[in-house]
């Protein structure tokens, strides 16, 4: 595994040299999610380096034919979706459209993002140029979904073919890289999640001694219940029962088909005064909301999160982080230095961790400062794109 953004060679700093790069992702903004944010950030950073970038993705269910648009200056081709299996979009005409598109556009290199099955596998099978596979999850398996897990296991056969075809395999965290390497036998390098360096706010510590505002940022839909909002609400209730007071106000940023259920859960626990649902927010409004809070709570119940973008957004906003000791998270943060980690699936332990935050303003400030420094040193798109650009040049040169 390799990714060292500091001390780059001169060749890693050079421009993208006009190479034509196709990035493939099942979903892309305005769709919301960690993979979507990663792909947009990478596409913009590679464009800034001089690459000619196109993103191939899917459109809404109502789209009838392939359509072109642009997102923040990035050229996008969206393919129609006829139906979905769980979170996987599909259409029987994709092979025809993809074949036409690749024949017409003549890309120099293709980067597919997975593990959402379907589109990435199809493009990889038809790729006539160097292929880079970027993997975003430690596991696709889901709790309490036996039939779906059977289908996912069968898809593993297709996935092995995808990884065999790849000229290079990347993962977004060391945890994901290790597990993918174990099951595939391929060398897997790390190209981590990142954030635009210009989003990093100047340090501005809050003045409150004990009571603080925390933020929870996620999609509030049924497919993302594993993000753990129900457990966070239970932790606030446990906090009040354990300590006779609740020193935490929670702002929930996000929307989806489960929002009403979460609002009812908060009401049933008597938390209406302490929990505010503000709906979906992006761009400047999202960061304004984050900068009004002191602590980011992210508490996933499974190992699905490969590298939570919310960590970077929190550190950029001067926030401390509280999370779960699960999956990739311990490989991304240092417990007690850049975040506090609680035992997963334990509302009581999460409540105790939040109490530590409430009782020690200095701890909140130290965690925020160390997290911000880690972001600036390691996780800006400018540094990540420079490394990726160099890797692509080597792949293209090896094929020529």
TrEMBL record:
Residues 32-194 form the Glycosyltransferase subfamily 4-like N-terminal domain. Keywords: Glycosyltransferase, Transferase. One of its GO terms (biological process) is carbohydrate derivative biosynthetic process. InterPro entries: Glyco_trans_1, Glyco_trans_4-like_N, Glycosyltransferase_grp1. CDD domains: GT4_PimA-like. Residues 205-373 form the Glycosyl transferase family domain. GO terms for molecular function: glycosyltransferase activity. Gene3D superfamilies: Glycogen Phosphorylase B (3.40.50.2000). The keyword Transferase applies. This is Glycosyl transferase group 1. It comes from Kineococcus radiotolerans (strain ATCC BAA-149 / DSM 14245 / SRS30216).
């Amino acid at each position: 595994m390799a990714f060292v953004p500091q001390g780059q060679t001169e060749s890693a700093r050079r421009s993208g040299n006009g190479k034509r790069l196709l990035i493939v992702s099942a979903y892309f903004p305005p769709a919301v999610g960690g993979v979507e944010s990663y792909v947009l950030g990478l596409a913009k950073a590679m464009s800034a380096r001089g690459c000619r970038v196109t993103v191939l993705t899917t459109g809404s269910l109502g789209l009838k034919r392939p359509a072109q648009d642009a997102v923040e200056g990035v050229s996008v081709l969206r393919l129609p979706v006829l139906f979905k299996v769980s979170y996987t979009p599909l259409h029987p005409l994709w092979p025809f459209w993809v074949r036409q598109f690749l024949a017409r556009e003549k890309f120099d290199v293709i980067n597919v993002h997975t593990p959402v099955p379907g589109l990435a596998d199809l493009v990889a099978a038809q790729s006539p140029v160097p292929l880079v596979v970027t993997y975003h999850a430690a596991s696709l398996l889901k709790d309490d979904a036996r039939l779906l897990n059977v289908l996912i296991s069968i898809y593993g056969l297709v996935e092995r073919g995808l990884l065999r075809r790849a000229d290079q395999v990347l993962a977004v965290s060391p945890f994901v890289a290790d597990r993918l390497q174990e099951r595939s036998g391929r060398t897997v390098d790390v190209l981590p999640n990142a954030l635009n360096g210009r989003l990093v706010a100047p340090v501005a510590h809050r003045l409150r001694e004990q009571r603080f505002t925390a933020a929870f940022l996620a999609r509030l839909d049924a497919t993302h219940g594993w993000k753990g909002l129900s457990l966070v609400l239970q932790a606030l209730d446990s906090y009040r029962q354990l300590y006779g007071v609740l020193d935490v106000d929670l702002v929930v940023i996000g929307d989806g088909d489960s929002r009403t259920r979460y609002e009812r859960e908060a009401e049933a626990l008597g938390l209406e005064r302490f929990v505010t649902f503000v709906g979906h927010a992006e761009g400047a409004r999202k960061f304004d909301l984050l900068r009004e809070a002191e602590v980011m709570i992210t508490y996933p119940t499974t190992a699905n999160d490969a590298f939570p973008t919310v960590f970077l957004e929190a550190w950029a906003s001067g926030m401390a982080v509280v999370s779960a000791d699960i999956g990739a998270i311990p490989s991304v943060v240092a417990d007690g230095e850049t975040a506090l980690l609680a035992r997963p699936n334990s509302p009581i332990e999460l409540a105790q961790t939040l109490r530590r935050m409430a009782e020690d303003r200095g701890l909140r400030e130290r965690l925020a400062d160390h997290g911000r420094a880690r972001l600036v040193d390691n996780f800006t798109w400018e540094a990540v794109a420079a490394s990726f650009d160099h890797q692509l040049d080597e792949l293209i040169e090896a094929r020529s």
